[in-house]
Amino acid sequence: MQLTQIPQLKHTDSNNFFLLAGPCAIEGEDMALRIAEKVVDITDKLKIPYVFKGSFKKANRSRIDSFTGIGDEKALKILSKVSKTFEVPTVTDIHEISDADKAAEYVDVLQIPAFLVRQTDLVVAAARTGKVVNLKKGQFMSPESMQHAVKKVTDSGNDKAWITDRGTMFGYQDMIVDFRGIPTMKQYAPVVLDVTHSLQQPNQSSGVTGGRPALIGTMARAGIAAGVDGLFMETHFDPVNAKSDGANMLDLSLLEKLLTNLVAIRNVINQI
C-alpha cells in the first residue's frame, strides 16, 4: 500500500517512517488541538508523514468507572476539526460493527484493537468502508497469524491494510516485543510498532493499567533499527492527569528530541 493513498498525508517522498501519534482518548477540543498543533509542527520540521491519533471512545476498560469518552459524535467532530485545521489525516479505533461507517465519515484510518482483531465481522466492516484499516496484532497472536487478518481486509476489496505490533503478553502483567516478527509481518502489509502500549503493565490489582514510559525511546529506536515502516505512540502534555493510559504515554515535551533521534537512525538505515 502506498502512503500517497491517504488524503492529506504530507512528506510521503521523504523516505522516512510514518507516525501515528496523539492522546489515548479525545478528552476535549482544546486538548486535541493543542497536542495536534505541537506534533504537526515537529513532524513538518522533520518531514515525517503524520497521522493524528485519538480514540473517540474507549470500550475496553479495566473498571466500570474508567473514562470511556465525551460522547461519540462530539469526539468524532473534534477529530474532523483537527484534520481540517492542520490538514492532516486522522485515525481512531472502532469496537463494534456499527462504529465502522460512523467513524469513517470523520477519519481516514480505522484501527482494530488488538483484543478484537480476530473479530471477522468487525474487520470486514472496517474494510468495506474503503478506509485504511490498521490491524493491531493481538497480544495472544503470532506474527504469522496476522496474514489472515490482512486477508480479511483484502478479500473484502480493500488493499489498504497495516499491521501494528503492540507487544505480546508475558505472564500476567508485562509485554514483550519479538522483533523477529517485524520482517515476517512486512511480508503481509506495512508494519507499525506501537511503542507505548507495548510498554504497558496490565492486570494491576488497582484496576488501572501501569506502564514503563522511560523505555519509550529504547523501544522506538529498536523498532526503527529493525525496519518498521511506521511508529505509533500516545503523547500528552500532562500524562499524569490524562484520562486514559497516562501511565505509558510519552510526555509531549520529549517528543521532538526523540523524533529527531529516530530520523537520524532512519537515515543511517536507509544507507545500508
TrEMBL record:
Keyword Lipid metabolism found: no
Organism domain of life: Bacteria
Keyword field: Cytoplasm, Transferase
Subcellular location field: Cytoplasm
Gene Ontology CC: cytoplasm
Enzyme Commission no: 2.5.1.55
Pathway: Carbohydrate biosynthesis; 3-deoxy-D-manno-octulosonate biosynthesis; 3-deoxy-D-manno-octulosonate from D-ribulose 5-phosphate: step 2/3; Bacterial outer membrane biogenesis; lipopolysaccharide biosynthesis
GTP-binding found in the keyword field: no
Domain DAHP synthetase I/KDSA, first and last residues per copy: 12-262
Top-level EC class: transferase
SUPFAM superfamilies recorded: Aldolase (SSF51569)
NCBIfam families named in the record: KDO8P_synth (TIGR01362), PRK05198.1 (NF003543)
Name of this protein: 3-deoxy-8-phosphooctulonate synthase
Taxonomic source organism: Flagellimonas allohymeniacidonis
Highest classification ranks of the organism: Bacteria, Pseudomonadati, Bacteroidota, Flavobacteriia, Flavobacteriales
